[in-house]
Write a structure and sequence with these properties.
There is one protein chain. This protein is an alpha/beta fold. Helix content is 55%, strand content 13%.
Length: 220
């Protein structure tokens, strides 16, 4: 089955460019388009895309609020990839904190766009980990507070789960983590699921952000 994608951007040329790049791939299908975040909810419910590629800045409802709305109201919500002009944008960091699974630059090369959609759909690796680390360095410390540290401490991760989280933050996939820790991939998946559950995180991106904001992982 192809990875299905919903495109949401107020610039028609951006949507057309993304559609052309994605539909050139045999395993990706663009199932719909919208010009603003306000139209996302009914389309997400009706089309059931695997991934929403969504502009972070839009006139009526921006990508941050649209992400929150999708995750709050759509059953079994799709993965969300926010699309942005500037990677070091506080809007991008807020979208990730709101539940987006990764971000993509509008100037990205076609191969990077395709890679981002596939990786986010699979959900077994962190998209652009170096860029997430830079965002955490610039914005995470501002957001980090005693509450974040206390919440992380209450999660009660085991030593092995902490190892897994550190490797997740470096962008390693489940298979790569398994090789590093000399365990099977299914064991890694179990540890990752436990980390997400204990941290109350939707996916790897939110778990890694929590790790940065709590001070468990230092930016850099």
């Amino acid at each position: 089955m192809p990875v299905t994608v919903l495109l949401v951007d107020d610039e028609p040329l951006v949507r057309a460019g993304l559609r052309a790049v994605l539909e050139a791939q045999p395993d990706i299908e663009v199932v719909g388009e919208a010009a603003d975040g306000a139209a996302v909810i009914p389309l997400a419910r009706g089309l059931r895309p695997d991934v929403i590629a969504m502009d972070v800045r839009m006139p009526l409802l921006d990508g941050i609020e649209a992400t929150r709305a999708v995750l709050r109201t759509v059953p079994d919500p799709p993965k969300i990839l926010v699309v942005t002009t500037f990677e070091n944008d506080e809007y991008v960091y807020e979208a990730l904190r709101a539940g987006a699974d990764g971000f993509l630059l509008k100037r990205a090369r076609p191969a990077e766009i395709v890679h981002a959609v596939r990786l986010v759909a699979e959900g077994e690796s962190l998209l652009f980990p170096a860029a997430v680390r830079r965002l955490a360095a610039d914005h995470g410390r501002e957001r980090g507070e005693d509450g974040a540290r206390a919440a992380f401490a209450r999660a009660g991760l085991t030593g092995r789960e902490e190892e897994v989280l550190r490797l997740m933050a470096r962008g390693l996939s489940n298979a790569e983590i398994g090789e590093r820790l000399v365990v099977g991939t299914e064991t890694v998946k179990s540890h990752v699921s436990a980390v997400l559950a204990k941290l109350g995180a939707r996916d790897r991106t939110q778990a890694v952000i929590a790790a940065y904001e709590s001070g468990f992982v230092a930016p850099g």
